[in-house]
């Protein structure tokens, strides 16, 4: 499980079940297991604490802005 954090203010945003060792480019909504300090603003997913734009929201996923977040935790082996 990964914990996704805001790169600017370090707030926790959500927990994500990442399968495979690849980069975190998209986060499927169905694999977000817990939501913390993130919120939806228009078509963007933003950090509630500082307003940093973390991702663009699509129907079934978040297209992540790679400069806007960091993460910790482990990816799940395929
Ligand atoms: Zn932030």
Short summary of the structure?
With 78 residues, this protein is an all-beta fold. The chain has strands at 2-6, 12-16, 26-28, 32-35, 38-41, 44-47, 53-57, 61-64, 69-73. 0% of the residues lie in helices and 50% in strands.
Kindly state the percentage of residues in helix.
under 10%
Bound molecules: zinc ion
Outline type: globular
Parts with pLDDT < 50 across at least 5 consecutive residues: none
How would you describe this protein?
With 78 residues, the chain is mainly β. It has one domain (2-73). Helices cover 0% and strands 50% of the residues. The chain has no helices and 9 strands. Strands 3-8-7-6-5 form a 5-stranded antiparallel β-sheet, with no helix packed on it. Strands 4-2-1-9 form a 4-stranded antiparallel β-sheet, with no helix packed on it. The model has no long low-confidence stretch (mean pLDDT 97). It binds zinc ion. Zinc ion (ZN) binds next to loops. The site of zinc ion has 8 residues, from loops.
Which key phrases capture this entry?
four-stranded antiparallel beta sheet, mainly beta, single chain, binds zinc ion, 0% helix, globular, 78 residues
Topology:
Elements: E1 2-6, E2 12-16, E3 26-28, E4 32-35, E5 38-41, E6 44-47, E7 53-57, E8 61-64, E9 69-73
Antiparallel strand pairs: 1-2, 1-9, 2-4, 3-8, 5-6, 6-7, 7-8
The protein binds zinc ion.
Zinc ion binds next to loops.
